[in-house]
Design goal:
Helix content: 40-55%
Order of helices and strands: HHEEEEEEHHHEHEEHEEHEE
Strand order of the largest sheet: 2-1-6-5-4-3
Number of domains: 3
EC number: 2.7.13.3
Subcellular location: Membrane
CATH architecture of the largest domain: 2-Layer Sandwich
Largest sheet: 6 strands, antiparallel
Strand content: 15-25%
Keywords: Kinase, Membrane, Phosphoprotein, Transferase, Transmembrane, Transmembrane helix, Two-component regulatory system
Main location: membrane
Number of helices: 8
Number of strands: 13
CATH topology of the largest domain: Beta-Lactamase
Structural class: alpha+beta
Radius of gyration: 49 Å
CATH class of the largest domain: Alpha Beta
InterPro entries: HAMP_dom (IPR003660), HATPase_C_sf (IPR036890), HATPase_dom (IPR003594), His_kinase_dom (IPR005467), HisK_dim/P_dom (IPR003661), HisK_dim/P_sf (IPR036097), Sig_transdc_His_kin-like_C (IPR004358), TCS_sensor_his_kinase (IPR050428)
């Protein structure tokens, strides 16, 4: 699978395109060399035959037919290897001289050139070989064939063709290997950037893309991305600082205002005024809860971890929370289910974990209608402990599941219900402090409403075995040297 993903990368496709262009160039170059080499050797053979024909024509003009026959016989006798092919016949193809017996069969051009095979069919006594000759008529009705053995030339052409084929194959293999290695090196650099970017998107804003110090294109890209991240973090910290400062500065006067409203509520006798004052106190409590949540989230994001990390039995902590919220669920006539596996131990801050658990259970009860179902579970999955809350409520659309952890974000269906949009933001911050991850899914994907299941996965701690105190036996007393008997037990 990894190899297939490597082949689909743009760098490999670019290398493949380069390989095709390079291989085409090499093929055209080798084809040109072959054409020039083979053409030159063929032309040289034809020139040799033409020169031989010119010499025989001169002998014929000076000595006649008898002289032509004589010179052909002499040349055949001087050439035992039969590199040059001769055949002189009458008009009726009766042999007068030469080293073959009959006219060969083969493709003949208009200029008289013929390619054929020297074999027993033409009276050749040696092994079969390839030949090229020219045929023309001599005055008096005689026919003359003069050719050359081109078997070595043909073998040389085959060697060149084989070399070209192997050269092309090796070129393609090397180009493919080079493209793969180049794309692999490029893909590694890109994968480093992708992995770092994914971790940054998951909330690790302090990470930066590493560079090699080569000042190449990838280093320049990494430096630009790192500068962009620095700027984004600076702007985010500025906005966060402003919002946290506002929350911190307004909490004290808002607390005073809330206390004054509560005093007013206790002092008024008019029912209508008492109702208005009660509503004002409730709104002030809601604002104070919002500011407290903002400040707590800010502290978690600033510190990055809790200072009070201890071994926590998550199943016991969730059981305590369920005792508090089970009565609330019963008031709405909901089915409250629990499945708490023992031995689910993690390292964490008990108070923060209880806040996270309470928020999730409270949300599940709040957004589940009457006679609905709320389920709470704790289980171990490999080296992780999973805390899960599921409900049969309104659920969250798939396109909004990644946004509900943002501050003040509320799903459209839940805007009519009380809340400030900070509950899941606090849950996300607590989970991050505990190196956890949150998975959202539909409880009933095929039903409407689909409900919501929130699972928080956190690293598990190994169980500590109970220490068994070994009972040490009293050492045996030595035997008496005088009597040879053991002393009596006291």
């Amino acid at each position: 699978m990894k190899l297939l993903s490597q082949l689909r990368t743009s760098s490999f496709q670019l290398a493949l395109l380069y390989m095709v262009v390079f291989a085409t160039s090499v093929f055209l170059l080798l084809a040109f060399i072959y054409w020039r080499t083979a053409g030159f050797m063929t032309a040289q053979t034809d020139e040799t035959i033409e020169a031989e024909i010119a010499g025989l024509a001169e002998q014929y003009r000076g000595r006649g037919v008898n002289g032509l026959i004589t010179i052909i016989r002499e040349r055949v006798a001087r050439d035992p290897n039969a590199k040059t092919i001769y055949l002189l016949t009458t008009e009726d193809f009766l042999k007068l001289a030469g080293n073959i017996e009959t006219w060969p069969e083969g493709s003949r051009t208009e200029s008289g050139w013929i390619n054929f095979t020297l074999s027993s069919d033409v009276g050749w006594s040696g092994p079969e070989r390839l030949a090229r000759a020219r045929i023309f008529e001599v005055q008096g009705g005689l026919r003359l064939l003069v050719g050359r053995d081109v078997d070595e030339l043909t073998s040389l052409k085959r060697v060149i063709e084989t070399a070209i084929n192997w050269g092309m194959g090796i070129t393609l293999a090397l180009a493919l290997l080079g493209g793969f290695l180049m794309s692999r090196s490029t893909t590694r650099r890109i994968e480093i950037i992708n992995n770092t970017s994914r971790r940054i998107m998951n909330g690790h804003l302090s990470l930066r893309i590493p560079t090699r110090g080569t000042e190449d294109d990838f280093d320049q890209l990494a430096e630009n991305l790192n500068q962009m991240l620095d700027r984004i973090v600076y702007l985010m910290e500025g906005i966060r600082h402003v919002s946290d400062s506002i929350a911190h500065d307004l909490r004290t006067p808002l607390t005073r205002l809330r206390n004054q409203l509560e005093n007013t509520l206790m002092s008024v006798d008019n029912d209508a005024a008492r109702e208005h004052a009660g509503r004002a106190v409730a709104e002030a409590d809601q604002l104070l809860a919002t500011f407290n949540a903002l400040l707590r989230i800010a502290r978690l994001e600033t510190k990055g971890s809790s200072a009070d990390m201890k071994r926590v039995a998550l199943d016991e902590l969730v059981s305590d929370a369920c005792e508090l919220y089970e009565a609330v669920s019963e008031d709405k006539e909901q089915t409250f289910e629990q499945s708490l596996a023992a031995g689910a131990v993690i390292e964490g801050d008990r108070d923060l974990l209880f806040q996270m658990i309470s928020n999730l259970i409270d949300n599940a009860i709040k957004y589940t209608p009457e006679q609905g179902t709320v389920g709470v579970a704790v289980r171990k999955e490999g080296d992780e402990v999973v805390f899960e809350v599921r409900d049969s409520g309104i659920g969250i659309p798939d396109d909004e599941k990644d946004q509900v952890f943002q501050r003040f974000y509320r799903v459209g269906k839940s805007r009519s219900l009380p809340g400030n949009g900070l509950g899941l933001s606090l849950v996300s911050a607590v989970a991050e402090v505990h190196n956890g991850r949150i998975i959202l899914s539909d409880t009933y994907p095929e039903h409407q409403p689909p409900g919501l299941t929130i699972a928080v996965h956190m690293p598990a701690l190994p169980l500590v075995p109970k220490r068994i105190r070994a009972t040490q036996a009293e050492p045996a007393q030595p035997e008496s040297a005088d009597t040879g008997t053991k002393p009596a037990d006291l």
